[in-house]
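Mods, move this if it's the wrong board.
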Amino acid sequence: MSGNKKNGTTNTVESKMGNADNKAPMTLAEARQDLKGMKGKKFWRSIDELADTPEFQAAVEKEFPSAAQEWVDPVSRRGFLKVMGASMALAGLAGCTKQPDEPIYPYVKAPEDLILGKPMYFATAHPFSTGAVPVLIKSDEFRPIKVDGNPEHSYNRGSSDPYSQGTLLDLYDPDRSQHVLFKGEGRSWGEFAEAFRIKVASTKDGTGIYFLSTGITSPTLARQWKAVQAAYPKATLVQYEPALAGTFLENGLNVQYDLSQADLIVSLDADFLSGASYPGFHKLVRDYADRRKHPENGMNRLYAVESSTTTTGMKAEHRLGLRASEIPAFAAALANAVGFEAVKAPAYAWTAEQQKFLAALAKDLKANAGKSAVIPGLYQDSSVAALALAINNLLGNVGKTVTAGSDPVNPLPSDQLAGMKALVADLNAGKVDWLVLLNSNPIYNAPADLNFAAAFDKAKVVAHLGTHLDETGQISHWHLPAAHYLEMWSDARAYDGTVSIVQPMIDPLYGGHSAHDVLQVLLNEPMLSAHDAVRETWKSAIKGDFETGWRKVLHDGWIADTTYGGGRVVAFNGSIPTPTPKDSIEIIFRPDPNIYDGRWSNVGWLQELPKPVTNLSWDNAAIVSGYTLEKLGLEEDDIIELSVGNGRVKAPVIVAPGHPDNSVTVHLGYGREFAGRVGSGAGFNAYLIRNTWSPFYATGTIKKIEGKWGTAITKSHYQDHRGTTFGQQGNGNNSLEADEALGPRGIIRYASLEEFKANPNFAHEGEGRETPTLDTSLFPNWTYNEPNSWGMSIDMNSCTGCNACIVSCYAENNIAVVGKQQVRIGRNMQWLRIDTYFEGDLSAPPRPLPAHGLPALRKRPMRAGLPGRRHGAHA
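Not the wrong board. Structure tokens:
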């Protein structure tokens, strides 16, 4: 099985004698046999590292292989300029421009608030689909240069996420749409607004006028739509958020969790620690981590039942891997085990190990009634969310660790998949005169079984509002450049219900407009600005003098007293789907942890960011278990064809230890044709095999295709070529990352809570000396006794490896993005990185351990400790 690439080739695991005799590459079965009975590394990150093969050592002999292309290669220069375009714009570089011929002058009178060299900070919010993220924008000479969480906001308290950090580069993307177009020719916003208003007015009641929007979290936009609908009652609004359609969020179910009060946490396929794709991520991670920082106050305990290897499962004390279709049946069995009898779990042949896990979990839940929380998977059958709420209610958790919200984040909840089906039917029936797309890209991400592209051609006029001239914008009649959220006025609710005001940091770089402007065209004051529209929405909510209150709202970033209250618990009313046959292949669809549903495909920081667990960059892949790989006769980086229904797509295959067998995880968001110069052509389009009848997982088939894909995986940085002989324990000659945990220089030190209480100094043992004195350093002596001194430590108990700090480091230092080929030969430029170490058996390691790897080799091993101050945001 392959795992390491060099110069575009893939090496396989060989025998301990290497490949000197030109023998055929070993199969995975042979490698397993060769490994049997041998003692390898205790902690490992890839199969080759576990085997410690000569090929592995040769592949990472140098940090920067000699085959790496330098600036002397003109192709490399072009590629570098392509991926670094937005970073250059962010840095304000003018390497490809010149000063204007006319004389220019500095400020006659500088703006009152401007002090050169001193940045200013403004509160706003990133309007994300699961709820707004309150942020604080660092601005230099009124140019946004950094995004961080708002430290004063009750929801996230300064925490951030990779998506929010990456939106800064999206603002400066040179591939953003810059002109209003009609059939490819330049037009103006005024021409569009006039044509649109005249057409809608001529219908009298809005017949034939359709809007297709991404999910709405703005109360002002919802108010504007209701006003449009009152004036034109037959106008139709359809919402489609590809990563959320079909989930419990679209039905208005809003459940809040207070993990600070939970001694026991159960995840039913809920990856709530990995990233912002799970609603309430920022608060959930903070509450979870707070209980991990001070063991003397009582640590929480996490059970994870999951269908794909995630960082949530890695942090769990107890983890059970199940196929996605088995999760609803397991949730029902768990509900029965704790005493909820309103529904009967379907009969299923659970293994002895699974039954043991279920019994222990049920016992632990009953012992922690009122101080536990069961969290459902967002990308699961709706029965899982209903059963989780029923279990929480039965155990007395509701009102303590769990709150059933009375309002959804989306003020206009709807059945999005049903809405898309109805829209396609109306398109095919010729009922659509005008289709207005509000930041939506259905040509790329609509479910495959709808055949949206064919129906799209039957609309008489299509107008597309978007930040990029994407797959849908390319074939629309009208294309309208959309304003970035850092360029526009709006509002949005965070997941806890708090309303944040979205205020612009800069004038629209390309004259972009927002969805507010499009809807306002149809109302009585068509020229009313989004700023005035937002103010009108909240005039009654801001108490006292409105202008004073408004200034405070803009200063703080939110409107006080707008969080959700408690609501009633909805009784379970549904059926439990039966798991698919155990020998069938399930294909699981998840939004990508880096580029989400594809909206950030052209953000180089996010493309080059190694994904959690797999460390894959610039690609998506078919992720399987080692058993499934062996069963299908595959090797890593082989090309396979995935089939679901009538859809077919080609993908590379890679292994994630601990992944359930007979199951394949694929990430959405790749395979773009018109993402921009950075994102176009990366990966494969998983939407081609995703259907309305099974949006989260489906039974499919796998067929091997000839050839290798050439994935870029960062697994073997800082490896020393003097490593040990295959099968032996580490002897101190390994790299920083691969050093033995129990050796004197090991970087991984871990202990149970009981062991920590018995020996709080366990992480320092074996170092051989006390804290080094100043004269032992190679660098000039420096006494850190000033009030402001820099330092960073990472508490591995509370860090979840969400990658927010990595993207923040990109933004803080505008680090170069080098592209896929340079990553493949080891030249990625991250100054901070997160590696994943596994402990245990090759196929199902019981205790995966996420660990941070720092760019500089350190003399002392990394140890657990309270987190210090560091640059950038963290969750």
